[in-house]
Amino acid sequence: MKTQISFKKTDGSDGTALVNGAISSTLEAKRALANALDLPAVDAPSAGQEDVDSRLRNGGIDPDSIAQHHISE
C-alpha cells in the first residue's frame, strides 16, 4: 500500500507526494513528507526533539494543509 500526501505550499500552490506504507495519522504524514523531501531537521527548543511543523514551514509547506489518502496497488 502507498499513501498520497497532499499539501499547500506557502506560495499558494498545491503539491503531492507518494510514499510507501499506510500512514494513519497526520503527524506520521508530516514526518513522511518531510523525510521524502529531504527537509533538514529542526530541534524543538524545549524538548530537544524534532519539530516537524518547522521543517515543513522552512521547506515552504503549510503544515496545517497536510492530508493523506491511501492508495492500493
Q: Sheet bearing the most strands, described? A: 3 strands, antiparallel
The dominant shape is globular
Q: Nearest-angstrom radius of gyration?
A: 12 Å
Order of helices and strands: EEHHE
Q: Determine the structural class based on helices, strands and strand pairing.
A: alpha+beta
Average pLDDT, all residues = 89
**Number of helices, where a helix is a run of at least 4 consecutive DSSP H or I residues:** 2
* Uncertain stretches: none
Mind sketching the topology for me?
Layout: E1 2-8, E2 14-20, H1 26-36, H2 52-58, E3 67-71
Antiparallel strand pairs: 1-2, 1-3
Task: Throw out a few tags for this protein.
73 residues; alpha+beta
How is this structure best described in words?
By secondary structure, the chain is of the alpha+beta class. A 3-stranded antiparallel β-sheet has the order 2-1-3, with helices on one face. A hairpin with a 5-residue loop joins strand 1 (2-8) and strand 2 (14-20). It is globular. The relative contact order is 0.32. The model has no long low-confidence stretch (mean pLDDT 89). It starts with a strand and ends with a strand. Helix 1 packs across helix 2. It is 25% helix and 26% strand.
